[in-house]
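Dear all,

This email documents one entry for the complex benchmark we are building for the journal club exercise. For each entry we list the sequence lines for every component of the assembly. Then comes the predicted three-dimensional structure of the complex as a token string, followed by one or two observations. Please use this as the template for your own entries, and keep the labels exactly as they appear.
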Amino acid sequence: MTRRGVLTAGAAGAVAGGVPVSTSAERREMATMPVRFEVNGKRRELALDPRTTLLDALREHLHLTGTKKGCDHGQCGACTVLVNGVRINSCLSLVVQHQDDKVTTIEGLGTPEKLHPMQAAFVRHDGYQCGYCTPGQICSAVAVLDEIKRGVPSHVQADVTKTARPTNVELRERMSGNICRCGAYSNIAEAMAEVAGAKA
Amino acid sequence: MRSFTYERAADPVTAARAVAQRQGAKFIAGGTNLLDLMKIEIETPTHLVDVQDLGFDRIEATEDGGLRIGALVTNTDLAADKRVRRDYAVLTRAIVAGASGQLRNKATTAGNLLQRTRCPYFYDPSMPCNKRRPGSGCGAIGGYSRQLAVIGGSDKCIATNPSDMAVAMRLLDAKVETIDPQGATRTIPIADFHRLPGDTPHIETALEPGELITAVTLPKPIGGRHVYEKVRDRASYAFAIVSVAAVIAKDGSGRIAAGGLAHKPWRVEAADTALPQGAKAAATALLAGAQPTPDNAFKLPLVERTIAAALDTARSA
């Protein structure tokens, strides 16, 4: 049994224990909305309650559980994914707002056989401990290097008319929306610096 | 989250009508603040009108040498625009001092202006809040008020406006352009856009029901050093305790606006006039009539020091 299987079985047990849930009849009456988008290069079509966030659509409906739910309020960054190449908090976005968008999750960046350079650098530099924030950190890190290349300015730049260099201070500032309670920040910054250096 | 219906509007008047005609309807753009509040049922819209297809996503030069920023331009795109970085650097600096990279990628210009306060009593449904439930009282007055307003508050509300971007917009005398459900347009100076709480803290802006922001315009650039100094509890990704936006000329004259102090970005003409006399004179003018709580009285000397830091940064250029 997978870890997820254990969690699902646990939840089912809680329901049997008398936690109130909506009946299947109620669920049928709930109005759903269609949404069609691309996830990791595959076309996907779903019909969901409009309340469904992009995060819940990815995890609960497409079973792409690499993307994590941390705070569910945009404060921790564990849910970070790329939408049309740009990083966002998937917990603060309704999936119905993503009609025709191209979403990339951690599963779309690399595979165990063929890691994305950022994934490989995280492994080399020990950029995690428990690993819960890691998919969000890696998606964010990939996007940060792209943002620097595209000339997106940051709070720590002395001159905002210039294009920033991927210094340690720059990388740390730009990653401040990704919280790691194990405190792997130094190693994450080193992994990012290595990838940025390799690209330069 | 309460259930709601959802539509994507194809043109601005249809969007405005859809919101005006339906009780409890709201616009949604980036959704970063609205969805956060919907999850804890502080916002409970019955219908969402998604405005992302309305095409207000460009930054264009205006005839009088300024810029027109589409309502849907993201915070990241606005901060990164070459013209903004060159001519309105205080705006770029204010934006990148706020939120996180992920949020700035999704949050829009109009949405940023409309974001709600982060007062902890507004966020806690078990506490009274005249903003969340008019007439229920204010938990912050007499409560934990370290982050809250020191000026412009009322006996109904001492919430602060959380936006960094809005402080720079106020400094630059931006104007908010809108369209209403009848298709009529109007322009609201940023000084009149955000309201003081008074007896109706739940009414936060000058917008009428269904009135939709289409753009924010900036007048032609003003020369001088553009500075945004933000003081907060951690170095990144935190709301301001006090912030100061300033444009300072070589002779020491200029203008300032402050964040973290009031229900709206705080700007006082007398403070601009006093600037050449230094931070103390400017802070005294800016804070005339302040009524801090014991928890947040520290903000008053902090304003003077933050202005001093801004003047220092301007001089060291």
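Observations: The beta strands of chain A are 33-39, 42-48, 80-83, 86-89, 102-104. Residues 13-22 of chain A have pLDDT under 50 and may be disordered.
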